[in-house]
Write a structure and sequence with these properties.
homodimer, alpha+beta, nine-stranded mixed beta sheet, six-stranded mixed beta sheet, 24 helices, 36% helix, 26% strand
């Protein structure tokens, strides 16, 4: 279970899976480049994702721009809410994240108090290292008992304060720059989006998108049209998003530029069943529900998604369907089932509009990491964009039976009404037609009883009296043939970089018995390179065979690499075990006579022998979209033993 | 040849190939979203690109960040040179591109002068429309003959002025805001990169990359290591780049955010041969060389790339190899050979460091458009980054025979030298050891003849005299076993969006005989969807057959769409001709009895009939990486005639 992270990271660096971007220039934290194996692994994960979700379900894939104008993200809520609170030291220019600073300073005072009272504070070196603490020195000062109690209460709810509240705490407790004692600015909101200016005037403010979702929402009408107006349907998008983290750490898990794959499944709010739910209902998931968490526990319930939905634990079939599909995807690319759980959001972490939200979390040496979010965003996004732009983003469906409604309506006797009220007529008419049904009911009764009504109309002096002969207020029956509704959205959202890193941790092991022989046991489907080709020596006479094999593999779309360096075959295999290459083909002197070659499997190090054609065919069956096992794939080949592993 | 652009654009919009991004919010010029067919077309082009270049030649693909710190782009030259000159009207805030403004104003004065002289100015309405002219009104004012001559000379070289020179012209000719007559600011450089701030302090200035190349150069050492130090090799990268155009137009051809695919092929500057050049030497290309252009002509030379390289027209084999490979790629995805040419850069458009540069240009209704650049960037990029960071970016090779050099060297008699010059000793020593070979030769002669030398050393008062007993300056023989060199870079750089748009123009036609039946005749390999499935009616009994066929296709990785709408089969086919779907399969009443289905080809509208298995197999052979023709693919199927087309 525990991963030797230092060893893993050394392999990933040595093999250039990824590296800090711009390290020649000292690097920029939170930015990483993917080298050839990392890039191929990423491309394979994306390719499987596209087949598993987009092609399998006929989703409508779009590619929208990253540059996004201010207005769009203002409407979506990101300009106001995608932020952390910061304060600045005007003297040094240093910047602090306010909640972290207040927490740290108050914690240090509690520690100083403990020491003053002769109680040992617990050491927390690892914590210190992790958090890059701003407070370097604990001052031994005894506090009043009452102050200690106050501070303890504040710390218990530190995540719940708003920026201004944090500012009040800074004043009350005289919190300054821990290094210099200098005063700090009021808390300012620091938005986590990268800002830029579009066009030459600098007047069109824009951001790099924080998610791919908004582009999909904005294209809703075109997508619905592309889908011949049929519901439900899903759009999907794969692309980079950005988040200007204050102080990124944890390697690939918290970065400023990252690849996302997002699905927006549009569904009728009155019917969130899913036509293919039955296909996945039996799948068992490890769920960590919100009730358990609210009790401060982390117990997992392992139940089928069918049960989870029918018991109400998961809000609806569509959400449940996607949880199961996410599970199947992650397992398919090599995530270990016992290191995957679905954690439900608690009420206080969920957006107010969300109906339900579950994160697929993967266990890594950094803890349980959110890698896929799956939220029911309700009609929120379509509604806010529609309200802001006055463009309808709705589905119109012909009702099987028309909806019958009976409403109060006001009719005017124009011939009498106009002359009577003259220039005020328009205002009065508008006033009456914009009344609610409840108000109209009262007015109708009044008119019936008193034969006139008396109303106050904005912009018209004195109460207006209207006699019964001028208007009628009566109930009328209407037939509504078209149902118009704003769809709800179920959004599975994948952080590809986080999945990729977790997969590397889940796949990493040190081969038993041979020291420092690291292996990345990627499933063939995702492995960066499928086949390593090794000639027994770098003699030219092996070249035609290597060419023939790699051409045959290339025709089948199977990636291979030749290693004709002078290292021993064992060393060359070891190098490729580190790259996660699942199969190795050896060309040796026997090949020259009978064209037979050896095929080796990375994890078992088992070997078999056969003709070029047979071996290529075996490889093809084992790297297929629906791959067969080694035993099945090589059943027709001859087992082979060699000393090559050493 | 001529394309009905209005008609094409209406199809592309209706079928949501692409659309202006954020059009719900009024749009942002230069930003486009790709809808489902555009996105699939783009993905297919990228996929073929990756197979054609990266996999075929074992290139090392990397994925580097778009966010790039200031220092990197300062070093690469983009901060200083990736810019246009602008000026601003402080009163109105309006912004002008200075060279365009000066040109336009001076041209309008020449016209006004012509009118004043009673000569008719040529009408140039189309030009006016294209350029969105700032000068709306021509003032009829006669100029001095001398001024006319001056202005004509200025206009002839308008592209050659620097910003300050343009500023001088504005002063000299009193050029103001044409609309208001108000004064304008001095010319300012407007950098075309999008700027942003990385991290919370706002102090780390960054840009969105203008090309993917820099990330590849910065990772050179890691890539060379990944390639086991072998040369030559290539890296490749596919990703978005950005350019903050002043006033984007021409649809997808000039946008602010675009997908690029770039290759950096690293090669020994002393040996630019290419091991696979022989494979392409026979390929004939349509070349527009620089000599022809300098004569003001556009005549094409059609010769084999072998001849072009051996005659020196194309600088070297590696460059020539890539020109041929670019040609093969473009033809493969459906570009028309007669609408493709390679234009050589003239001396004044090429960067000073470039050895040679050719653009693959595609003919569109907007003219000949640069879609792929192929430049020999020499050692420029690696050299500047290495100089800036003091990190070597070089290849080290063991020489077969060591290099023998004989150089002057200075030896000091430390015992005498130190005591004599005391604190100045270090400076004098440093001065002497940093002399060039030529200087050392002169000093050696002086020492020999005068038995002492006299030198001026910075920071040491008065000339320093050094006697022969303190130093020797003599020639020494050295053996150099390692050759160290900075590789040159040949860079094929593809603008995927421009290729995609050109391909749409090249593929578009109106079917003879039936009005407004538009067809996009994409080759099957790139077509967004390969197969349309149409049941003859939307009766449920066809569903099992549709499911069976689409499952069979999906297993083979072939994308298909069902259209079970109530439109006639002919109308459904017509809709899919607009989407460029190459094949249609009809399920009809006969299918219910014998499982036979009809296969239709988009361009010929020919139809054949066979079993599900036979038809799927035929489709597979025609959409393969190396596809067979319709005739070949359907040879075993029965020709079929129906009335469905109407």
């Amino acid at each position: 279970m525990s991963v030797d992270r230092e060893n893993l990271e050394s392999v990933l660096k040595r093999r250039f899976f990824y590296a800090p971007a711009f390290d020649l220039y000292g690097g920029v934290s939170g930015l990483y480049d993917y080298g050839p194996p990392g890039c191929a692994l990423q491309a394979n994960i994306v390719d499987i994702w596209r087949k598993h979700f987009v092609l399998e379900e006929d989703m409508l894939e779009v590619d929208c721009t990253m540059l996004t104008p201010y207005e769009v993200l203002k409407t979506s809520g990101h300009v106001d809410k995608f932020a952390d609170w910061m304060c600045r030291d005007p003297a040094t220019g240093e910047i602090f994240r306010v909640d972290h600073l207040v927490e740290e300073v108050l914690e240090s005072r509690l520690k100083g108090d403990k020491e003053a009272r002769g109680l040992a504070a617990e050491p927390d070196k690892s914590e210190e290292k992790k958090r890059k603490k701003k407070v370097k020195e604990i001052k031994v000062v005894k506090l009043d008992d009452q102050v200690v109690a106050e501070i303890e209460s504040i710390l218990a709810q530190i995540d719940g304060y708003s920026g201004p509240e944090l500012g009040d705490l800074m004043k009350k407790y005289n919190i300054t720059n821990p290094a210099t004692g200098g005063p700090l600015s009021e808390p300012l909101e620091f938005n986590l989006m990268f800002e830029t200016a579009i066009g030459p005037s600098g007047q069109l403010k824009g951001y790099l998108r924080p998610e791919t979702a908004q582009g999909q929402f904005l294209n809703f009408n075109k997508l619905l049209e592309s889908n011949n107006q049929k519901m439900p349907f899903a759009s999907a998008s794969i692309g980079k998003s950005f988040r200007n983290e204050i102080s990124p750490r944890s390697g690939l898990l918290r970065v400023r530029e990252f690849l996302m794959a997002e699905i927006e499944h549009f569904v009728d709010p009155l019917d969130k069943s899913h036509p293919r739910f039955a296909e996945v209902a039996h799948i068992k998931l490890r769920l960590l529900n919100k009730t358990v968490q609210q009790e401060g526990k982390t117990d997992i319930t392992e139940i089928s998604i069918g049960e989870a939905v029918s018991s109400g634990l998961v809000d609806n079939e569509t959400l449940g369907y996607f949880l199961a599909r996410i599970y199947l995807f992650l397992i398919r690319i090599g995530i270990k089932p016992d290191r995957l759980r679905f954690r439900q959001h608690m009420a206080n972490e969920m957006a107010h509009y969300a109906a339900d939200c579950w994160d697929a979390e993967l266990q890594t040496s950094y803890g349980w990491i959110e890698c896929v979010g799956c939220a029911d965003r309700s009609a929120y996004d379509l509604t806010v964009h529609s309200n802001r732009t006055n463009e309808k983003l709705v589905v119109r469906q012909t009702r099987e039976t028309p909806l019958v409604t009976e409403d109060y309506e006001v009719d005017f006797d124009k011939k009498k009404f106009g002359p009577k009220f003259k220039k005020d007529g328009k205002k009065i008419e508008q006033y009456l037609t914009s009344r609610s049904q409840d108000e109209l009911e009262i007015l109708a009764t009044e008119l019936e009883e008193k034969l006139k009504i008396s109303v106050n109309v904005d912009g018209v002096d004195a109460p207006v009296e209207i006699e019964k002969e001028l208007i009628t207020i009566s109930r009328k029956t209407k037939l509504d043939h078209i149902r118009e509704f704003t769809p709800n959205v179920v959004e599975p959202s994948f952080g590809i970089g986080r999945i990729l890193y977790s997969l590397m941790e889940h796949s990493f092991y040190i081969r038993d018995g041979s020291e420092s022989r690291a292996v990345l046991s990627f499933p063939p489907l995702v492995a960066p390179t499928k086949v390593l080709l090794v000639p027994i020596s770098n003699d030219d006479k092996f070249t035609p065979f290597l060419r023939k094999i790699s051409a045959a593999l290339r025709r089948l779309g199977i990636s291979s690499k030749v290693d004709d360096s002078s290292a021993t075959i064992g060393r060359r295999y070891a190098r490729n075990d580190e790259l996660g290459t699942p199969f190795g083909i050896t060309v040796d002197f026997e090949t020259l006579t009978d064209e037979s070659i050896t095929l080796r499997e990375r994890d078992s190090t088992k070997q078999v022998r056969g003709s070029i054609e047979e071996v290529v065919k075996a490889v093809q069956s084992m790297v297929a979209v629906e791959p067969v096992s080694w035993e099945e794939g090589t059943v027709k080949l001859t087992p082979f033993t060699s000393e090559a592993e050493e």
